[in-house]
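INTERNAL AUDIT FORM
Audit reference: QA-55
Scope: verify that the stored structure record matches its stored sequence.
Auditor: D.O.
Record contents follow.
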Amino acid sequence: MIKTIPLNKLVQSPRNVRRHADAAADAELKASIAAHGLLQNLIVRPAAKGRFEVEAGERRRRAMLALVDDKVLPRGHEVTCLVLENDDSAVETSLAENFHRLAMNPADEAQAFASLVDSGASIEDVARRFGLTVRFVEGRLRLAQLAPVVFEALAAGEITLDIAKAFGATSNQEIQARVFEQAFAGYYAPSPDSIRRMVLSGTVRGSDPRARLVGRDAYVAAGGRIERELFDDDDSESWVDVALLESLAQARMEEQAQAIAAEQGLAWVRPTLDSYASHDLVDGLVRLPAEPAPLTEAELARLEALDASWDEHAAIVEDEDSAEEAAAAAEAAIEAIERECQELRNRPPVLAPELKAEAGMILTLSRDGTPVLQPVFYGERDVVAGAEDEGIEIVPADAGEGGRRSALSKRLVDELAMQRRDILSLHIASDPGLALDLLVFSLADADTHDWRSRASTTLRGGAPAGPIVGFEAKDAPASAALAELKAGFDESWRAGEDVSARFDRFRALSDESRAAWLGFVVARTLEASLNMAGERRIAFQDHLGCLIGIDTAQWWRPTAANYFDRVSKQVILDALADVGGTELSSRFASVKKADLAMSAERVFSGTYITEVEVRERALAWVPEVMRFASPLPDEPEQASSPGNEADGAPADGLSDGQEDPRELAA
């Protein structure tokens, strides 16, 4: 029955399925009612004391109450309503009325569907009544079975629907609640995949590389179990017997490895279920030299034929009179030619014949479950010793940091390398002339660079991240001065709307401004290195440091935090002996490590009371790895030692005519 009812007689129904609102949408509804009036009646049910409970239209009721507060409508405003006499249809009516308007919160939908099913409706009935798929209704019902803490978070909008579905990967509410507490107690926002992995701990997803390698049929045939939840497909289903899967995958990789070794005549192929060759896997091995295989005469002839064919098809594509079908066929032919050319030019590495009989390779597992043979040859240390005698260069697969490695931790080595890099960067950034020479030389030398050796700079415009992601030496003078130097650059050219405009603006800068940018962009490409044997060593950077005459002690001082706390007690005592002899080091021989580190910081900062000569040596001391030193004994001489006036380098550590970067940054 349709009737008008005063607004102040309408109250919210406890059965109304909508529990949550959207403030922006509610504001729009309020404005619409104020401008156009109520366009659709409310659905109500008689209640006690002459009141009527709103089963459908609660948002409209609240919007009208807000208009009453704004004195737009009177408190007794008459509202057109459809009065229901049958209580059984209240929930379904409310759901039907709400469903196709403002998208309901999934939690509200889940509760409403669950209420209908509890009242006797089947899932198929609910899906049919609202024009939905059975799977959609099942999904919402699954949400209704989530742990209360997860469901409440979904209802409050604190987690997304995808996150909630990930929790539904298991029906165990205790696990859901525990994972919810763990996942949202951290500082990072979890993803649906991470939630799914956490609730399915102890299982493997169907998309796992191991699962793809083995295959579903082989796993099930071997007795493997698979659990499939409501939202799962072939990729997200859970493979329960992880140990069995590991065994099957390892056996499959072993089989592939043996076949490859026999096919290529290798002594061995080591398989791994990782996507990379780990340190443990190559420990004790040495890397063997290999070059891309040369093209045969037949392959060279084929490339020439492909080039000619490419020209013929390109002429068809470029000819405006060519038929559309002919042009399309020519484009397809060109793509095929390019693929074949690429395959011909991508040559596999070839090993020296005298090494192949003892050589091996690593077989890894890609993310798509495909075995991938890494293009690197390895050999046992003892079997390649004779190769070195024949002049074949052998590179250790696990090349370390040389004799100093036991004294310095890997983290400290990386930090020192990055700080030393900043010192060199600051000086190059302060000398545009040298930066220009370095830039031009590096670009010109790129085509002759040996890919097996580490490049000194990136010189492609990008800045290397360094061996430690996110590390910043905020208390290091060189790093601070480098930042201050950049802060003084003219960046007005960045206001250009596109790359052409920015380029024109940059060209309009003064010579001095452009020169400053040149030094900086070259300097920021420098890789992190140290003056030590091993992979951290880049001899060319030491040559640059010597050429400039850098005095590292002016830019970096060892402290407890950045050095002494990070090395052994003996390393600290050796440093004290370097500046004060055994007399100074013996004073601290019985001091505990923590106190010794603080005392050493005072000594090397010049605040410790000692002889003038010792203080001067302490202020000039830096670890040998931080110096820009002359070449190591097994390397050719490149430049004189820094700070040696007899060799032509001025005592202030700067080359002739170069400005002190400390003054530029001041």
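Auditor finding: record pair retrieved intact. The CA atoms of residues 156 and 322 lie 62 Å apart.
Action required: none
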